[in-house]
Design goal:
Shape of chain A: elongated
Mean pLDDT of chain A: 90
Number of domains of chain B: 4
Helix content of chain B: 25-40%
Shape of chain B: globular
Largest sheet of chain B: 7 strands, mixed
CATH architecture of the largest domain in chain B: 3-Layer(aba) Sandwich
Oligomer: heterodimer
Structural class of chain B: alpha/beta
Largest interface: A-B, 25 and 26 residues
Strand order of the largest sheet of chain B: 14-13-24-23-22-15-16
Strand content of chain A: 5-15%
Strand content of chain B: 15-25%
Helix content of chain A: 40-55%
Distance between the termini of chain B: 48 Å
Structural class of chain A: mainly alpha
C-alpha cells in the first residue's frame, strides 16, 4: 500500500489559486478540504462546509440566487467566529477573501467574468480563423465538432462548428487548435423586457 | 474543595471551586448555557460550539464546556455574536434532522427541539439533507435510528468511558455514523444494554425499544427511587403513566455522566405485569393451592405461627426495604421466636456490613478491589464495574486483588493474584516498606508477608495515594479493612441491595440461621421474597410471601402476595451507607400488599397490636455505628458467589420476556 499524503490547507490553497473564477476557486478549495483535512470535530465546520459546497455549486451552475450568496457569506462568517481550529478558520477566510469582488453577484446575474463556469459559456469556432485541419474533431471525445477536413482535391466543405448540445466544455479542442480558432463566449441570456 | 473563585455570569455572582468550567459555574448560578455535546464530569470536546460565551477582556468567544473559570471572570452568555453562532449551528443541524416532532417520542425532552424553540428557528434556511439510514430495531431494549443522530458523540463517549466500548464513529463530517464493530445490530455486538447511551442522547437517535406511541415524557409521573435488584442499589427514576411503569432511567442528577444503571434495573420493571405474579392470597386445599381471602389466609398463618412459637422461623432475602425488615423482626417477636434471618448470612455477617465505611468513589485516587469481580457483562455489580472503570479512565489508579482473574483486571494498574488475604497483607507490608506510616501493631501483623513484584507495585501505589478506597467482598472485609487502619476507607460490597440496611435494622438471627432453617430446622417456615430454595424444606407448614409464584411457592401451604419494590414505599441503605427513599411508584397489583403491611396484618391476626415502622424507626436503627480494628488477615467463609445470589433472588424478574433475551443475545454475540 502506498501512503497517500494528506493534503494540507496550504497545498489546497495553492492549487485553488490557479483557478481564476473566485466562485470556482472557493468551490475547489472547500471540496478538497472536505475530502482531506476536514477533521469533522466541530459542527460549524463539518456541517457548514458541506452546505457551502451545495451552495457554491449552485452558483457555478447558474442556478444560484441572492439567498445562496448570503448563505455562503453567513457560513464563512460564522465558521470564522466559531470553528474549533485554524483549518476551519482558514477555509472561512479563503471563502471570504474573494466574496467582495463582485464575481458572486455577476454569477447570480448570469455571467462568469472569468469565463470559467461552464454554465455561463459556450465554445465557438471562429470561421475566419479556422483552417479546417480537423484536429479539434479528432480530439473531441464527445463528438461535438461538426465539419469536414480540408482536402486539396475537394471544394464546398462543411464548415467546422461546435454542437452545443453535445459539447461538455472540456477544453480539449482549444488546447489542440494550432491557430486559436476556438473561443469561449458568454451565453447570451434573453434581454429582460421592460414595461 | 472549597468554593474559592468568584465569577460573574450574566450579572449574577457565583462562587465556585477552582477547576470548574464555565458551564458548570453557570449551572450553579442557575443559568443554562446551551450545549449538545457536553457531558457533566467529562472533559468538554467543543464539538457543537453551542456553549460559546464571551468573557470580558477576552479576545473572542470561548467554549464554556472547556474553559475553566478564573477569579473575577465576567462572562456573558447571550451576546449577539454567540447567539448568532448558536442559531447557525441549530440551523445547520435542522437541515439534516427529521422534522417530525409531532410524532417523535422525544418531543418535550429533545434538546435540539428546545434550542430551536428558544432561538426561534422554525425551519432550516439551509438545503435539506437526507441520509437514508436503516434503524436498528431488532433487539428488545434499545432502538437506534441514525437518521436522527446529530453526531454529538455523547453515546460514544459514555460507552467508552464506562468500559463497554461498543459504539464508535464510522466516517467523518456530516456523513459520519455511530456504529458497533462492523456495523452489526446491537444484539450481535458486545452491548450490555445498560442504556447509558439512551440517557445521554439529546435527540431521538437512541431510545428505549418499546416507547413508540406509549406516551411522551410530559405524560409521565416521575419519582426518584432505588433499585433493589443487586448489591449496587442504584438510584433510579421511575416514570409511570396510567398506573403503569413505562420507563426507568438512571436516577442521578440530569446531565451527569455519573449516570449508570444496568439492563436489569432499566428493563426489569416488566416483571410487575408478569404472568408469574401472585395477585391474591392462596391457601392449600387438599393438595392444591386455591385463591383465598386475606382474612382466611391470615387466620391460617396466625394460628400456625402461634402454635409453633419458638419453632417458627422467618427467612427473607436481603433485598427487602428497611421497614419490611423492622416489621418482620416485630412479627417474629410476636410469634415468640428467635429464628429470623436473611440471605445475607449466606455470604456475610451483619457486623461486617455495619463496620463497612462510606466513601466517595469519585474523589478516590486509588481503588483497591479485593475479592470482587464486578462485571457489566455478567451483570454482577455492574454499576460498580462502570464506576471503577470510569474512575480509572479519569486518572485514578486501580489495584485488583483476586485469586481468579476476571475482566476487571484489564482496567487495573496492578493486579495481585494468589490468595487474597495474603495479597492484602503483602500490599500493606510493601506500602509500609515504602514509607507508609502505620502503628507498630499493624506493622508487626504484616511483618512476615511475602511480597511479590505485583504486590510491591500495589503497595507503592497505596503508599503514595492520597485518598484510597478499598472495596472488598464481605468475606474479605476484615482483612481489607486492616489497610484502612493505615490510610483511606474500606467498604464491604454485598451481593444484595439492602444487605447493609437489613444488618442495621438488626434482622439477624438470635436463634437458627438462614441455612439451618432452610434445611428444615424449624416446624413452621415463613419465607419472604425469592429465597434461593428450589425444594420445599422438611417443615410442617410453609408460608411463602412473594410477588411471584416461585418454585418454592408452588409447594407452600399458604402463599401471600407481596408487592414488588416498585409498588412499595420504604427506604434502603446501599453499600456506601446512603439511606435512599423509595416511594410507591405504582399501586400493588391485584390484592398484593407491601411486605411490611402483610407482617403487620399477620401480627394483628395473632392478636398483637402491631404498627407499621416509621421513617423515624428506620433512622434510629440506621445510626448503629461500626468501627474498624485490627483483625487477622483471614477470609470469612462465603458459601455462595455474588452472581449466584443475584440470579437466584431475582429469578422471576430475570426470566421475564424481556430480560430473558439478554442471555440469547449474549450467545449470539459470542457466535458473531
Amino acid at each position: 500500500m502506498t501512503e497517500v499524503k494528506e493534503k494540507k490547507t496550504a497545498d489546497i490553497k495553492k492549487e485553488a489559486e490557479e483557478i481564476k473564477c473566485p466562485v470556482q476557486r472557493a468551490l475547489y478549495y472547500v471540496e478538497e478540504f472536505l475530502a482531506g483535512p476536514m477533521c469533522g470535530k466541530c459542527f460549524p465546520c463539518e456541517m457548514g462546509t458541506f452546505e457551502a459546497v451545495v451552495r457554491l455549486r449552485k452558483v457555478t451552475e447558474g442556478t444560484g440566487t441572492v439567498d445562496d450568496v448570503a448563505a455562503i457569506k453567513r457560513i464563512a462568517d460564522e465558521m470564522l467566529e466559531s470553528s474549533r481550529c485554524k483549518k476551519g478558520k482558514d477555509t472561512a477566510e479563503f471563502i471570504l477573501e474573494w466574496m467582495g469582488s463582485g464575481s458572486y453577484d455577476a454569477h447570480i446575474a448570469g455571467k462568469c467574468p472569468e469565463n470559467e463556469c461552464k454554465a455561463f459559456i459556450e465554445y465557438r469556432v471562429i470561421p475566419e480563423k479556422c483552417t479546417m485541419c480537423g484536429l479539434c474533431k479528432d480530439v473531441c471525445k464527445d463528438n461535438a465538432v461538426l465539419g469536414e477536413k480540408a482536402l486539396p482535391y475537394m471544394s464546398g466543405y462543411l464548415p467546422f462548428e461546435i454542437r452545443q448540445k453535445r459539447c461538455t466544455k472540456c477544453g480539449e479542442c482549444i488546447k489542440v487548435c494550432p491557430v486559436d480558432a476556438i473561443e469561449i463566449i458568454e451565453i447570451k441570456t434573453a434581454e429582460e423586457v421592460k414595461a | 474543595m472549597s468554593d474559592t473563585l468568584k465569577v460573574t455570569i450574566d450579572g449574577k455572582e457565583v462562587k465556585v471551586a477552582e477547576g470548574t468550567n464555565i458551564i458548570d459555574a453557570a449551572e450553579a448560578a442557575g443559568i443554562h448555557i446551551p450545549n449538545l455535546c457536553y457531558l457533566k464530569g467529562m472533559k468538554g470536546i467543543g464539538a457543537c460550539r453551542l456553549c460559546l460565551v464571551e468573557v470580558e477582556g477576552g479576545r473572542g468567544p470561548v467554549i464554556a464546556c472547556n474553559a475553566k473559570v478564573k477569579d473575577g471572570m465576567v462572562v456573558s452568555t447571550t451576546t449577539d455574536k454567540v447567539v448568532e453562532a448558536r442559531k447557525f449551528v441549530i440551523d445547520l443541524i435542522l437541515s439534516m434532522h427529521p422534522l417530525d416532532c409531532m410524532t417523535c417520542t422525544k418531543a418535550g425532552v429533545c434538546t435540539l427541539q428546545k434550542y430551536a424553540y428558544d432561538l426561534g428557528i422554525q425551519e432550516s434556511s439551509f438545503t435539506r439533507k437526507k441520509f437514508g439510514y436503516e434503524p436498528d430495531t431488532d433487539n428488545s431494549f434499545i432502538k437506534r435510528d441514525p437518521e436522527y443522530c446529530i453526531l454529538c458523540a455523547r453515546c460514544v463517549r459514555v460507552c467508552k468511558e464506562q468500559g463497554t466500548n461498543v459504539l464508535e464513529f464510522m466516517g467523518r463530517g456530516v456523513g459520519a455514523k455511530v456504529i458497533t464493530a462492523q456495523d452489526k445490530p446491537l444484539q450481535e455486538s458486545e452491548c450490555t444494554f445498560c442504556g447509558s447511551c439512551v440517557d445521554a442522547c439529546p435527540v431521538n437517535a437512541l431510545l428505549e425499544a418499546d416507547r413508540w406511541r406509549k406516551g411522551r415524557e410530559w405524560d409521565y409521573d416521575k419519582v426518584s427511587s432505588a433499585c433493589l435488584i443487586c448489591g449496587n442499589g442504584c438510584d433510579i427514576k421511575v416514570s409511570t403513566k396510567d398506573g403503569k411503569v413505562t420507563k426507568i432511567s438512571a436516577g442521578q442528577a440530569d446531565g451527569s455522566a455519573e449516570k449508570y444503571i444496568c439492563a436489569y434495573g432499566r428493563y426489569g420493571f416488566d416483571s410487575i405485569e408478569s404472568e408469574a405474579r401472585v395477585t391474591s392470597p392462596m391457601v392449600k386445599d387438599g393438595s392444591k393451592l386455591k385463591a383465598a381471602s386475606w382474612d382466611d389466609a391470615l387466620a391460617v398463618v396466625a394460628e400456625k405461627l402461634k402454635k409453633a412459637g419458638k419453632d417458627a422461623g422467618f427467612i427473607s432475602v436481603a433485598g427487602i426495604q428497611n421497614e419490611d425488615a423492622l416489621a418482620m423482626k416485630d412479627l417474629a417477636k410476636t410469634a415468640k421466636t428467635k429464628n429470623y434471618d436473611t440471605t445475607l448470612s449466606l455470604y456475610a455477617d451483619a457486623e461486617t456490613l455495619i463496620n463497612s465505611q462510606t466513601a466517595d468513589l469519585d474523589s478516590a485516587d486509588l481503588i483497591i478491589l479485593a475479592g470482587l469481580a464486578p462485571s457489566q457483562w455478567e451483570r454482577v455489580l455492574p454499576q460498580l464495574d462502570a464506576a471503577v472503570r470510569r474512575r480509572a479512565d479519569r486518572g485514578a489508579k486501580l489495584v485488583v486483588v483476586n485469586a481468579k482473574e476476571s475482566r476487571i483486571n484489564e482496567a487495573a494498574t496492578a493486579s495481585v493474584a494468589g490468595k487474597e488475604t495474603d495479597a492484602l497483607k503483602a500490599i500493606l507490608k510493601a506500602a509500609i516498606d515504602k514509607g507508609l506510616k502505620a502503628d507498630k501493631k499493624l506493622a508487626d501483623a504484616v511483618k512476615d508477608a511475602k511480597v511479590s513484584d505485583e504486590a510491591a507495585q500495589a503497595g507503592e501505589l497505596f503508599a503514595s495515594a492520597e485518598s484510597p478506597v478499598v472495596l472488598a467482598s464481605p468475606s474479605l472485609f476484615d482483612a481489607a479493612a486492616n489497610l484502612s487502619l493505615a490510610k483511606g476507607t474500606a467498604v464491604a460490597v454485598p451481593a444484595e441491595s439492602n444487605a447493609k440496611g437489613v444488618a442495621l435494622m438488626g434482622l439477624t438471627t438470635d436463634g437458627k440461621s438462614f441455612k439451618e432453617m432452610a434445611d428444615g430446622g424449624v416446624k413452621v417456615l415463613y419465607a419472604v421474597g425469592e429465597v434461593p430454595l428450589k425444594k420445599r424444606p422438611k417443615v410442617d407448614f410453609l408460608v411463602v410471601q412473594s410477588p411471584y409464584m416461585t418454585e418454592l411457592a408452588k409447594h407452600a401451604d399458604v402463599v401471600l402476595p407481596a408487592a414488588t419494590f416498585y409498588e412499595s414505599a420504604g427506604t434502603m441503605v446501599d453499600y456506601m451507607g446512603r439511606l435512599k427513599f423509595m416511594p410507591e411508584a405504582v399501586e400493588p397489583r391485584g390484592e398484593s400488599l407491601s411486605n411490611k403491611d402483610i407482617f403487620v396484618k399477620v401480627a394483628k391476626a395473632m392478636g398483637a397490636t402491631a404498627k407499621k415502622p416509621t421513617e423515624a424507626d428506620v433512622k434510629k436503627a440506621a445510626k448503629a455505628e461500626g468501627m474498624i480494628s485490627l483483625k487477622p488477615f483471614e477470609a470469612k467463609k462465603a458459601d455462595v458467589s455474588a452472581s449466584d445470589i443475584i440470579e437466584n433472588v431475582n429469578a422471576s424478574v430475570l426470566s421475564g420476556p424481556r430480560l430473558s433475551s439478554l442471555k440469547a443475545y449474549a450467545k449470539a454475540a459470542v457466535k458473531a
